[in-house]
Fold this sequence. Notes:
Order of helices and strands: EHEHEHEHEHEHEHEHEHEEHH
Oligomer: single chain
Shape: elongated
Bound molecules: 6-O-phosphono-beta-D-fructofuranose
Strand order of the largest sheet: 3-2-1-4-5-10-11
Largest sheet: 7 strands, mixed
Low-confidence stretches: none
Helix content: 40-55%
Mean pLDDT: 94
Amino acid sequence: MSQIKCIGILTSGGDAPGMNAAIRAVTRAAIYNGFEVKGIYRGYKGLITGEIAPFKTQNVSNIIQQGGTILKTARCQEFKTPEGRKTAYDTLVKEGIDALVVIGGDGTLTGARIFASEFNFPIVGLPGTIDNDLFGTDTTIGYDTALNTIMEAVDKIRDTATSHERLFFIEVMGRDAGFLALNGAIATGAEAAIIPEISTEVDQLEELIKNGFRKSKNSSIVLVAESPTTGGAMHLAERVQKEYPQYDVRVTILGHIQRGGSPTAHDRILASRMGSAAIDALLEDQRNVMIGIRNNEIEYVPFNKAIKNDKPIDRELLNTLRRLSI
Ligand code: F6P
């Protein structure tokens, strides 16, 4: 039986819509099961500086619909040092926190994995990132909302692309992953997606656009995943414009608009299920696992697996995009 009495909760790395729903779920499921809860502010930084407060059910009222994170977030360099992590551990001991639930992406789970093994400290992770780049879960908290934001923005740009008969390169986030670009392209009927996972796409692009314009289309939209591998939208646009001066080329970088906004129903439900499952995991004495949901089933994914394994792009999605963009 678990010896845990008090659970600390934090959000770290880039904010993602649905993080608040996850904070609410962890807090309430923990209290429901008789645990004490403490909120840690500004991610791992708050562990080092001791920015911690007790959390009751009221602390998480009326937040399920809010974007961002009420606990704030940070990318903490100090936590990457052994000294920083020791200070964080001392804070946990002082606060009487005997388990952590951390919500974040790749960097957050990497920090958790190192800390958990150094101090033999129980940690459960929730995948909170718009990038959807964590292995062991079909989607991450925030991904669906970001995808919908992209869809709405691209739909609007399509109006201008069609009216002016232009070729738009639209850059979306994803760090080194192409999930947002590929699925965003399918959802908006874009002509192509340039993603880091498929390097040949760049070479095929010019031909594709040429064919598109030659046939019937009077506008084209290409979604480009931000990444050194793709070179980004600006780079591609310059290349295409040089080769095809007859096209009226424009670039839009969607940027941080993709990280904000009220979470979709999908993300709220995902966050609620995952937050609740995090407490089940601690009750079952699970250690150092990320909560994933695959094929609608909760799974406990060891940190190592979630971080180290590349999450593959579904080839069927690529084929669908290619077939439908002719
Ligand atoms: O990981 C989420 C993310 O939005 C990535 O898609 C992007 O590359 C990065 O964070 C941007 O980080 P920042 O907001 O710190 O510039």
